[in-house]
Write a structure and sequence with these properties.
seven-stranded mixed β-sheet; four-stranded mixed β-sheet; 10 helices; globular
Amino acid sequence: MLHPWGSWRYGAGGDGPSFVNDGGGDLRTSIVVCTFNRVDWLPHCLASLLAQEPRPDEIIVVDGPSVDGTRELLKEMEREGLVRLIEQHSLDGISAARNLGLAAATGDIVCFVDDDAIAEPGWLQAILDGYEDEEVGGVGGPVHHMDGRLCMGRNAVSVEGMWYDESRNEPLDGCYPVMVGCNMSFRRQPLIDAGGFDPYFKYHQDETDACLGVLRLGYRIRYQENAVVRHEWCEGSYRKDMLRWYIRLRYLWGRNNSYLVRKHFGSMVPFSRYCGNRVIAFVSKRRLVTESPGEKMRTDPRLPPFLTYVGLLSEACGLVQGWRDGRQERLNGLRPPEPLQDLA
């Protein structure tokens, strides 16, 4: 089977296989890709990673119980020394999959890229350049649509759990810098010390929680403008019933966001203030500028009004549940964020 990956191979000798890396630098890099039934898109993602200069020291693919040929593709690539395959026997959310990849990683820096994303040339070098300062614990960059349009730029989150994006001319003052999940990296040990990815977040806000955990340890998050990833926003194969999935997604949006706020900012933000901000966000129709299936469905003018209200009710139920669940995990308040211009 021919691949566009080039001459990657495992090195010989030692206690086991190790990647041959012609790149430079003292920091070893691991890239983790979590996938499930993406045999059509995954090869494009992996080709872009294998083409990076410097080359990553290892590419770890965590595969859910794929049945569309993805598992067979990855086994062949592992035999050829191109990737390390971690088999996930059951789907348990993105955090569980990322934690499997983190546990297997050996690099000083662990990068996370979605299986329907493509890293632009120079992406990995830009990521590594961001770690010149030892106080930097995480480095991310912008996300573009496949046609090159900017999707998300420098992001930050407020104590009320509101996301802000500098590329939309939104002020980031007083907010905590975070990264987008399809284009993020961390120093491995600080991420492990922070607890990795909280399995409560099966989808959505897992990356924000991880960023706040690393910030809590005293590290900084850096944004690299030229560390670009393009994202397709493919529909997952499990989203066959879009109506049911949409209602479930709205519930998770509410649940995960309120859990995040109470976990990290609960000592600063009372429930009444948090709810007030969510209402203001809804009234102002504030939305993300992504082309994810859930976002497109939520903002589709053809969406029946009754479904809009059902989705809102589902999100409100999730919000209450997340706040209750976050009570057990509430941490001491974070120190005030550093000025973001210092983190560029």
